[in-house]
Automatic annotation (TrEMBL):
It holds the Pfam family DUF6968. It comes from Rhizomicrobium palustre. Residues 12-92 form the DUF6968 domain. This is DUF6968 domain-containing protein. InterPro entries: DUF6968 (IPR054241).
Length: 113
């Protein structure tokens, strides 16, 4: 599979923006020469293209693809919402976490002392 092919879509999420819907499509992880990759596409931001993210195995490739998609959406310069909320319900790490409304970390991450 080339970097320009999405592959079999296993998950799709529709977000909202003032310009219209923003769509995230996530393809099934694929093994390419002993490496695992997950392709995803974001449409509706004006620069529609397929991105490829790798991982040690299929689970890590999926997780990395979701994290990269979140980074792309949160840093797009477009206000994007999901079910009317700015929290897009995607995993984030590092500096991108600072862009997510505080309610996300309070409701998704349960810390027990």
């Amino acid at each position: 599979m080339s970097e320009r092919e999405l592959g079999a879509v296993i998950a799709r999420r529709e977000f909202s923006s003032a310009a219209g819907p923003v769509i995230l499509e996530l393809a099934a992880p694929v093994d390419v020469g002993g490496n695992t990759f997950c392709h995803f596409r974001i449409t509706g931001l004006g620069d529609d293209h397929i991105l490829r993210v790798g991982g040690a195995d299929a689970i890590q490739a999926l997780q990395n693809a979701l994290t990269m998609a979140a980074s792309t959406l949160y840093t797009s310069g477009t206000e994007i919402t999901w079910h009317g909320q700015k929290d897009l319900g995607l995993p984030v790490t590092g500096v991108i976490a600072a862009l997510v409304p505080k309610a996300h970390t309070e409701t998704c991450c349960h810390h027990h002392d």
